[in-house]
């Protein structure tokens, strides 16, 4: 019995299947262009209202526009053009100038004593001004709840490493199961050229099977509350489907992570030489 094929990748699909298990394409809503969920990266139809993987809304709401014919709101007059504002500012400036004397003696400063003019005029006595008390600097605000401190303490680094390891375990599981939806959820929607990376990953899965896959996380650094980086070394054992030839590889990457919806995701990576 001939099984139906996916109209996008031409892989066999089950009868009455809603989505292709190889590329994630919608089989009930045929696609004429490539579309992916902006939240989890799953392939969706341009006519879907919700993602079938993460249930993210795919409907774009129109921008709100003012009702036609409504008169424009009157411009508010600038308060700086009112004379009473300038009078209030002048009074405030005079009060600030008199504050040191009011705190010291409770009365305004005495008028200046006129100096007599003449060759034998005595020099006026200089009265040292009383020191003005300097207010204590304001206390720094407490850090917001839920935002980790940026100090590189061993406990903070260990907690961050555990969180990144959890994400990489998800990526490892997606590779072993060849689950493109789970694989896409490990990457940030802002990952550069992710569409091409997704297609390359599907091509590798089609040609190879994993007989072993493990990783190690080192050099973990928290850049700010929502950015981190680490070195990730993958150890792979793969077997080519066509020839059944196996080989082992070790690949190290400089990986950049960012928080999306409170969860760490891979935002960029660069393979290290060697």
Overview features:
single chain, 274 residues, alpha+beta, Nuclear Transport Factor 2, Chain: A
Topology:
Layout: H1 83-105, H2 154-177, H3 180-185, H4 194-207, E1 208-224, E2 227-240, E3 246-260, E4 263-271
Order of helices and strands: HHHHEEEE
Number of helices: 4
State the separation between the terminal residues, measured CA to CA: 50 Å
**Average pLDDT:** 74
Largest beta-sheet details: 4 strands, antiparallel
Polypeptide structure, described:
The chain has 274 residues and is of the alpha+beta class. Among the domains are: 1-60, no CATH class; 154-271, Nuclear Transport Factor 2, Chain: A, CATH 3.10.450.50. It has helices at 83-105, 154-177, 180-185, 194-207, and strands at 208-224, 227-240, 246-260, 263-271. It has a four-stranded antiparallel beta sheet. Strand 1 and strand 2 (227-240) form a beta hairpin. Residues 61-75 and 134-150 have low confidence and may be disordered.
């Amino acid at each position: 019995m001939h099984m139906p094929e996916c109209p996008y990748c031409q892989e066999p699909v089950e009868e009455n299947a809603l989505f292709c298990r190889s590329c994630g394409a919608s089989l009930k809503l045929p696609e004429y262009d490539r579309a992916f969920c902006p939240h989890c990266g799953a392939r969706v139809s341009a006519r879907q209202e919700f993602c079938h993987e993460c249930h993210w809304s795919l409907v774009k709401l129109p921008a709100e526009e003012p009702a036609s014919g409504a008169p424009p709101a009157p411009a508010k007059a600038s308060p700086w053009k009112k004379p009473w504002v300038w009078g209030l500012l002048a009074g405030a400036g005079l009060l600030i100038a008199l504050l040191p004397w009011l705190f010291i003696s409770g009365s305004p400063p005495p008028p200046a004593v006129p100096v007599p003019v003449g060759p034998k005029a005595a020099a006026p006595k200089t009265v040292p001004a009383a020191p003005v008390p300097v207010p204590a600097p304001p206390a720094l605000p407490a850090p917001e709840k839920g935002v980790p401190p940026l100090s590189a303490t061993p406990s903070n680094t260990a907690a961050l490493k555990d969180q990144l390891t959890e994400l990489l375990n998800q990526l490892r599981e997606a590779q072993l199961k060849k689950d493109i939806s789970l694989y896409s959820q490990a990457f940030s929607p802002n990952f550069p050229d992710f569409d091409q990376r997704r297609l390359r990953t599907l091509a590798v899965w089609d040609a190879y099977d994993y007989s072993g896959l493990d990783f190690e996380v080192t050099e973990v650094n928290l850049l700010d509350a929502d950015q981190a980086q680490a070195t990730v070394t993958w150890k792979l054992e793969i077997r080519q489907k066509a020839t059944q030839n196996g080989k082992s590889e070790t690949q190290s990457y400089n990986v950049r992570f960012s928080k999306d919806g409170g969860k760490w995701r891979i935002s960029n990576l660069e393979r290290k030489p060697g």
